[in-house]
Specification:
With 498 residues, the protein is an alpha/beta fold. The chain contains 16 helices and twelve strands. The strands form two sheets. Strands 2-8-7-6-5-3-4 form a seven-stranded mixed β-sheet, sandwiched between helices. The chain has a five-stranded mixed β-sheet with strand order 1-11-12-10-9. The C terminus is likely disordered.
């Protein structure tokens, strides 16, 4: 018997995935860290974005790796073929989409979280207490009651979906989770503005209510939801037998950063008995700035708020968040008894409400740690100042556009998003955006406003300065002149000097 045991042990003796030589591993790990820090510190020395060469892309069509590779060789491949062709949102010239720039502090926290390898689905351990502390901080910032609950998710798209599910369960009762939405569920209607993010429609789809059940209300001249039209549509739906249950207001619309009249929407929802949810993907964190927080008046009346710390909070991806006023309603939408999730009075399985009771995930990473490090290290005052600074830079870009006859401003600047164009046709402006991106000077994006193609600059990165705005404007004028003049140079210009 002992011989059998020894033979069995020898056959599985070397399956550990730990390094064989910890000193060698440590040296390479320090090199990785040093070079990553250098990359952040010297981010201005490289293009914002660069196209992926065909050969590099083809290299990632290789077969499944059956044999082991040297870690140094794997890192070399990453350094040469992955890192140079990332999205570019670390760069101060990245203004395409509402992507945060991250911080070196957040990067270190992510490394520490990976070292712990904690599962935040539940049980009694400190990583969950870190998440609970951030829930409490958010509750205080948004003036929610102590009974409020919150949870980290991948991003606001998921948080918005979860808010729809909480509102649906509240409207239909918890039995709907067992029996389905039934006839009552088929009559539910929700409301948002025509300027709302597309993930709201997608949430209605995934929730089983259907996109047709979402009424997209017209916006006013400031691109905010028309509250009078909203009220009228709710009345019409009630009259014909539908059951309104949810209004989703925007705190920072995707196209131009407009903030709905949250107080007026809150009052309407209270009168009509509707769930009031705020999609505050990036705009909700204006609460960190005393200068901008008044724009969010009424957000404290919401039943739920979705936001992303990885945008204006500058936390590395991903770090979405959902805050719910009534923690019990939140729990009733997701909690599910199971023997393997039973709670005990003591030991590792102790605790009452676990994060898995508040969302669909049983396995969850330690997203809270990088957020905790960011909030603790910089403080809300400094983060709020960075938020206000990005809005000031947007105003600076607005003045540059208004002062330049060759440029046209397409919408007033609300927060940090500027939509403008070169005074030419849509086709020329579409090419300008691609030209600038491929040049590496900057990375704007685009949208359509009132039937016109717009160059969209979303200023989120805490590293962005006036010089980066100037470089963008100069690039638009240069490429616009080439395109509209009919003389196109194939070679991209050298990187703008800062």
């Amino acid at each position: 018997m002992n011989e059998i045991i020894r033979n069995t042990q020898s056959s599985v003796a070397n399956t550990s995935l730990d390094p064989q030589d910890w000193s060698e591993f440590r040296a390479l790990a320090h090199l990785m860290l040093d070079e990553t820090i250098d990359g952040i510190a010297n981010v201005r020395a490289r293009p914002v974005w660069r196209p992926i060469p065909d050969g590099v892309r083809a290299a990632f069509r290789a077969d499944v790796p059956r044999e082991a590779s040297d870690l140094a060789e794997v890192y070399r491949e990453f350094s040469e073929h992955v890192a140079p062709y990332a999205t570019g949102n670390l760069h101060p010239g990245f203004m395409g989409w509402v992507h945060g720039g991250g911080t070196a502090v957040g990067m270190l926290a992510e490394m520490l979280a990976a070292g712990l390898n904690a599962n935040l689905g539940g049980r009694d351990h400190m990583p969950i207490e870190v998440e609970r502390q951030i829930v409490d901080w958010m509750r205080r910032l948004f003036l929610f009651p102590e009974s409020a609950s919150g949870i980290f998710v991948t991003g606001t798209s998921m948080a918005n979906l979860m808010a729809v599910l909480v509102a649906r369960t509240t409207a239909l009762g918890t039995l709907a989770r067992q029996h389905g939405i039934g006839n009552d569920g088929a009559l539910l209607t929700a409301y948002t503005s025509q300027a709302a993010h597309g993930c709201i429609s997608r949430a209605m789809d995934i929730a089983g209510l259907g996109t047709d059940a979402l009424r997209k209300i017209a916006v006013d001249a400031d691109h905010r939801i028309d509250v009078a039209a909203l009220r009228a549509q709710i009345a019409v739906d009630r009259e014909v037998g539908f059951k309104p249950f949810l209004v989703v207001a925007s705190a920072g619309t995707v196209d131009i950063g407009a903030i709905d009249d949250l107080r007026a929407v809150a009052e309407l929802c209270r009168e009509e008995g509707l769930w009031f949810h705020v999609d505050g993907a990036f705009g909700a964190l204006a609460i960190l700035s005393p200068e901008l927080a008044p724009l969010l008046g009424g957000i404290e009346l919401a039943d739920s708020i979705a936001l992303d710390f990885h945008k204006w909070g500058q936390v590395p991806y991903d770090a979405g968040f959902l805050l719910v006023r009534d923690g019990e309603q939140h729990r009733q939408a997701f909690a599910q008894p199971a023997a393997y999730l039973s709670r005990e009075a003591r030991g590792l399985a102790a605790g009452a409400v676990w994060p898995c009771d508040l969302g669909p995930d049983l396995s969850r990473g330690f997203r809270a740690l990088k957020t905790w490090f960011t909030l603790k290290t910089f403080g809300t005052d400094r983060l709020g100042a960075a938020v206000a600074r990005s809005c000031a830079l947007a105003k600076y870009l607005e003045t540059r556009v208004l002062a330049e006859p060759r440029l046209e401003l397409l919408a007033g600047v609300n927060l940090n998003i500027v939509c403008f164009r070169y005074r030419s046709g849509d086709a020329v402006n579409r090419e300008i955006v691609a030209d600038i991106q491929e040049s590496g000077i900057a990375a704007p994006s685009s949208t359509m406003l009132d039937g016109k193609f717009a160059i969209r600059a979303a200023i989120v990165n805490h590293r962005t300065e006036e010089a980066d705005i100037d470089a963008l404007v100069a690039a638009v004028l240069e490429f616009g002149g080439r395109r509209s003049g009919g003389v196109i140079e194939v070679d991209a210009p050298p990187l703008a000097a800062h």
